Amino acid sequence: MSVLVVGSIALDTVKTPAAEHTDLLGGSASYAAVSASFFAPVKLVGVVGDDFPRAHLDFLTHRKIDLSGLQQVEGKTFRWSGEYMVDMNTRETRSVELNVFEHFTPTLNASHNATPIVLLANIAPSLQSHVLDQMNRPQFTVADTMDLWINIARGDLEALLKRVDMLILNDGEARLFTGENNLIKAGHKIRSMGPHYVAIKKGEHGCLLFGENEFFSCPAFPLETIHDPTGAGDTFAGGLAGHLAANVTGAVTFADLRHAVVYGSVLASFNVEAFSLERLRSLQPAEITARYEAFRALSQFEGNK
Amino acid sequence: MSVLVVGSIALDTVKTPAAEHTDLLGGSASYAAVSASFFAPVKLVGVVGDDFPRAHLDFLTHRKIDLSGLQQVEGKTFRWSGEYMVDMNTRETRSVELNVFEHFTPTLNASHNATPIVLLANIAPSLQSHVLDQMNRPQFTVADTMDLWINIARGDLEALLKRVDMLILNDGEARLFTGENNLIKAGHKIRSMGPHYVAIKKGEHGCLLFGENEFFSCPAFPLETIHDPTGAGDTFAGGLAGHLAANVTGAVTFADLRHAVVYGSVLASFNVEAFSLERLRSLQPAEITARYEAFRALSQFEGNK
After folding, report:
1. Cβ A296–B302 below 8 Å, yes or no?
2. pLDDT by residue (tens digit) across B120-140?
3. Do residue A298 and residue B185 have CB atoms under 8 angstroms apart?
4. CA distances from B81 to B10, B12, B23, B94, B97 (A)
5. In whole angstroms, what is the distance from residue B287 CA to residue B305 CA?
6. What is the pLDDT, as a whole number, of residue A86?
7. Do residues A272 and A229 make contact, with C-beta atoms less than 8 angstroms apart?
8. How confident is the model at residue A87 (pLDDT cuts 50, 70, 90)?
9. Beta bridge mates, B117
10. What does each C-alpha distance from A195 to A7, A18, A32, A115, A126 come to in angstroms?
11. Among A68, A222, B72, B253, which one is most buried in terms of CB atoms within 10 A?
12. Does B217 touch chain A (CB under 8 A)?
């Protein structure tokens, strides 16, 4: 099965204590689409300006991503600039230029609206809902979000939650959204707002997956150095959705989602090893398999005497 | 095999946003010994004053803990008083009265110094070393510590580390001790200071276990309400040491430690469900087995289709 990925496409400037790079391929949909492409055919819906580098388009095409839904319009591409502090956990946004993204409306064509797995990567929840308005009964719908929308578009987000199968957000966002400090309470509370499944990402502490009377705690891969955390969450969501598309035939089960969460974590753990999407550019399927085995080894405590 | 537990025995006053209780059974050795007693015979070494309630002694005896190493001396028992803030993660110490603990020297008798498993629960590292001076080649030695000793007795702690098989500490203490923000780096750095194994406790995020080229990430049990976190770390250490004593015959392997860390986490997850040691007072072996199975279910992602 294939995955439809809708979200932002950006040119990023990222500064870390070690280095600074400009005009990197960024945006939630770029990370998610490339990550998903390691598992299943991907259709990307988004917008870029006429300044968008040919090399970035070539990379997406090389990943066999269907770009028929990519609008290229007059003007400048969405730009984001951020800086990471010494601990690599604290991030400061230095500038945001919406540019062509300001008037973006995701418009699906006939080849998009029957895609079985839909990943609504991080964009305004009203746009995420607008995508669902155009879909023809997808099999499984995953939405990602961020603190910005919780703060300025809570009503839109709550409306979206009644229409998606799964919501992905990080620990700080889950606390902000629910007012619950305890993440277990927060996960259950978000489920009660609509989605059957909720994934709460905790960075270095892994990820929690909530279902009806079911729970999974996915560890994080032990990394000594994080080169660039940008896009880790989007890469996680893309790997998760891509793995579902490749491996699920009937209804999505909690066991399917456990595997998908691990594969999402595998892809995210690679992504932070280099700037932008550089690590995924060279990533080989055998490396994914090896790291999946590493996840198994580090979380296993039975049958390993 | 049996476990020798050396540490503090206290009368605690604990205030949470929900309740306040006084003269509770507390101290690192009390929690650790009771926790270990669910798995193996325990010998307790510590000191109490002449005010120590008979009921607390009866409880320890009821748990079949050997109290021949418990000194009861003239004066008042060590007292600690603390208050937890609304999030139950932040704790403020309101008062500490060392009392008879101030001049405590752990003295082992002939029945103690050949105990195969030794748990040096949290006390001054110089006293922990003094215990080892009196031991006759124990099979496995575990030490717990805290921020206080890192701050005021770093030299003693470093000397101790060269003599123990395993160190247990929490995430904040690991960062304080090593100056490393990244816990993976911190774990490796502590191992390089002596102990073959290091366990870093992360509270709601579980626990990391480091060995030579081996790593285990233990999840936390998903609890919606924490009634009293006091002693969770001591209970973890006691469950771990007790499980090793009950299940290991030859040299301790990394696989043994994975299991022991899970059982330590199981016991700690029960302990925070009520004040002081109240939950362990009623805990049944079948509940331990059931929660171990729950840990398996929540961390498993293969073979569960």
Report:
1. yes
2. 999 999 999 999 999 999 999
3. no
4. 10, 6, 9, 5, 9
5. 26
6. 84
7. yes
8. confident
9. B3, B140
10. 20, 40, 20, 20, 17
11. A222
12. yes
Whether residue A305 is predicted with pLDDT greater than 70 in this model: the reply is no
Amino acid code (one letter) for B292: Y
Q: What is the mean pLDDT of chain A?
A: 96
> Whole-angstrom Cα distance, residue B198 to residue B133?
22
Averaged confidence pLDDT in chain B: 96
* Assembly ipTM: 0.92
Report yes or no: A109 and A6 within 8 Å, Cβ to Cβ.
Answer: no
Beta-carbon pairs below 8 A across chains A and B: 86
Could you tell me which CATH number the domain at B3-299 has?
A: 3.40.1190.20
pLDDT tens, position by position, A216-261:
999 999 999 999 999 999 999 999 999 999 999 889 999 999 999 9
Bridge partners of residue A153, in order along the sequence:
none
Inter-helix orientation angle A285-299/A254-271, to 10°: 110
Contacts of B299 by beta carbon, 8 Å cutoff, 6+ apart: A216, A217, A219, A299, A301, B218, B219
Q: Across the interface, do A255 and B220 touch by the CB < 8 Å criterion? A: no
- Residue B66 carries which side chain, given as an amino acid letter? D
* CA distances in angstroms from B104 to A52, B44, B131, B252, listed in the order given: 72, 14, 12, 31
B3 within 8 A of B118, measured Cβ to Cβ? yes
Q: Which residue has the tokens 């040491």?
A: B241
Tokens 């330590």 correspond to B264
* Eight-state DSSP code of residue B194: S
B145 closest CA partner among B193, B184, B111, B212: B193
- The SS3 of residue A15 is strand
- The conformation of residue B102, written as its DSSP 8-state character, comes to G
Which tens digit of pLDDT belongs to each residue from A106-156?
999 998 999 999 999 999 999 999 999 999 999 999 999 999 999 999 999
Asked if A222 and B184 come within 8 Å (Cβ–Cβ), the reply is yes
Distance from CA of B303 to the nearest CA of A (A): 9
Amino acid identity at B204: E
Query: Residue A224 and residue B253: Cβ atoms within 8 Å?
Result: no
Q: Are A301 and B261 a contacting pair at CB < 8 A?
A: yes
What residue ranges do the domains of chain B occupy? 3-299
Q: Give residue A302's pLDDT.
A: 83
To probe the interface with B, which of A301, A302, A304 has the most B CB atoms within 10 Å?
Answer: A301
Q: Is the pLDDT of residue B304 over 60?
A: no
Question: Strand A66-72 to strand B20-26: parallel, antiparallel, or no bridges (unpaired)?
Answer: unpaired
Q: Which long-range contacts (CB under 8 A, 24 or more apart) does B289-295 make?
A: B291/B221, B291/B266, B292/B262, B292/B263, B292/B266, B294/B221, B295/B218, B295/B219, B295/B221, B295/B262, B295/B265, B295/B266
